[in-house]
Amino acid sequence: MCICVDCHWVEICQAYHAVERQHGVPHLTATPTLMPDQPRIHVQVLDLPGGVVGVEWDVRTCDSFVADPGRWQRLRPDQRVPT
Length: 83
Ligand code: SF4
Prior knowledge:
Number of domains: 1
Oligomer: single chain
Radius of gyration: 13 Å
Order of helices and strands: HEEH
Distance between the termini: 5 Å
Number of strands: 2
Structural class: alpha+beta
Bound molecules: iron/sulfur cluster
Strand content: 15-25%
Strand order of the largest sheet: 1-2
């Protein structure tokens, strides 16, 4: 899972904004202002049912990470946390 969902900066982060774009999900903000330090994005190619290939993007480590467990969920309490 992407560590960003539990990061204090998730709604203003440019790297997470890019992850949202790759996943094709709605953005938390249209104008992210934070450039994180050294985010390392893990890209995984997945075999999905029906012979479809999917690509999963997750930030696994980041020097700007500030633990704020459940931050994404508090911003979108009516939605499922992205995985
Ligand atoms: S962990 Fe890094 S890339 Fe992810 S939201 Fe936080 S600052 Fe941005």
